[in-house]
Amino acid sequence: QSVLTQPPSVSGAPGQRVTISCTGSSSNIGAGYDVHWYQQLPGTAPKLLIYGNSDRPSGVPDRFSGSKSGTSASLAITGLQAEDEADYYCQSSDSSLSASYVFGTGTKVTVL
Amino acid sequence: EVQLLESGGGLVQPGGSLRLSCAASGFIFSDYAMSWVRQAPGKGLEWVSLISGSGGHTFYADSVKGRFTISRDNSKNTLYLQMNSLRAEDTAVYYCAKERGQLLANYFMDVWGKGTTVTVSS
CA dihedral defined by B69, B81, B113, A44, rounded to 10 degrees? Predict the structure, then answer.
């Protein structure tokens, strides 16, 4: 069971804006650790989408943006496109666990 | 082009062993920490283990500690995961990933391999 909680699913029509929350606690996101986001298209390996809370690797469209506040983080997708239909995972560290890194529970984005 | 290619997956009986490999290319392998991440069928991602660039520091998830060993051969640009005492719950796709970042606690995985499938079943 993950210590980072995400909604199981979100959906939106093409062109709309959707947000995915990643809720943690004072031992992970609230402790100041960075949050990173990954996109996993069906049947493929995960791909880095956002790092360091809000930075985008080269090649990632600026439709994707990340933010962090308190014990939570969010990923926003504006101008939703059909190819954005995928699973999205947040990731951070947790000082209460011996495991170095933790992933969120994952969110399935459906484009209606 | 930076590439990671996993191999070594397969079907193994409970209690058995398997060694996964990850061949790296396109970057200075010894400069970067590396991780293994797994994904059980229909489930989310689970971080398994990390090794520093020199190989001198290793970290494990509680679920595999004492059973799995991560290692690397920088002369061969290859990462390994030795898996012993395998259980049904270890069944998953195993990905290797290149780590990046300034501080260990804030590392992120910027390049992923395609994965190799491990099935633990009798």
Answer: -90
Looking up tokens 């489930």 gives B43
In chain A, residues with a C-beta closer than 8 Å to the C-beta of B114 are 44-45
Interface of A with B (CB under 8 A): 2, 33-34, 36, 38, 40, 44-48, 51-52, 57, 87, 89, 91, 93, 97-106
Q: How far apart are CA A93 and CA A13, in angstroms?
A: 33
How many residue pairs bridge chain A and chain B with CB atoms within 8 Å of each other?
74
A44, A45, A56, A41: which is closest to A87 by C-alpha? A41
- pLDDT tens digit string along A26-77? 999 999 999 999 999 999 999 999 999 999 999 999 999 999 999 999 999 9
